[in-house]
Design goal:
This protein has 156 residues and is mainly alpha-helical. The protein folds into 2 domains: 65 residues, no CATH class; 69 residues, no CATH class. It has a 3-stranded mixed β-sheet with strand order 1-3-2, with helices on one face. It is elongated, with a radius of gyration of 22 Å. The relative contact order is 0.09.
């Protein structure tokens, strides 16, 4: 679970519109798309409805591994990782270890740094134990969730 910035809305809507156009072309050519688990059997025509289309469809078609029907899957999990690997040198980041999971750590760290409560961050990260989330408070040097001494608020 995560939260998306409203600034991404236009990009997400554009990706959805693009996916629907791909679906229309696929449907015209008799190409379906893979549905999770047994949903394809339960809803055999669902691949024709936009609500069932992947937001990020793969660039190619293939034979479904179970049914053998020609279909389009979603982008493979490796696509963002490969794109990040190419982007790092272009951004001048060569001596740091950065992977997709780095964004999760940055997300949590920045939420805590900006004063969000640790329970909210815990829920967003899906941690069952708050002790796991507290690791991020140590990373930013705020072992007590950013609590300041009352002395720091006194005016001199």
């Amino acid at each position: 679970m995560t939260i998306l910035s409203p600034s991404l809305r236009a990009n997400i809507e554009a990706a959805m519109a693009n996916a629907v156009e791909i679906q229309k072309m696929d449907n015209a050519q008799g190409v379906g798309h893979s549905l999770p688990r047994a949903l394809g059997r339960k809803y055999p025509n669902a691949f024709r409805q936009p609500a069932w289309m992947f937001i990020f469809p793969s660039s190619g078609i293939c034979n479904h591994p179970v049914t053998g029907n020609v279909c389009r899957h979603h982008l493979h999990d490796s696509v963002p990782r490969k794109a990040l690997k190419k982007a790092l040198p272009k951004a001048g980041i060569v001596n740091k270890r950065v992977n997709c999971h780095t964004f999760r750590h940055s997300f949590a760290t920045e939420l805590l740094r900006s004063g969000r409560d640790i329970r909210t961050v815990q829920e967003l990260l899906g941690h069952s134990n708050v002790a796991t989330t507290q690791i991020y408070t140590h990373v930013i040097g705020q072992h007590f969730a950013g609590t300041e001494s009352p002395l720091d608020r006194l005016s001199t």
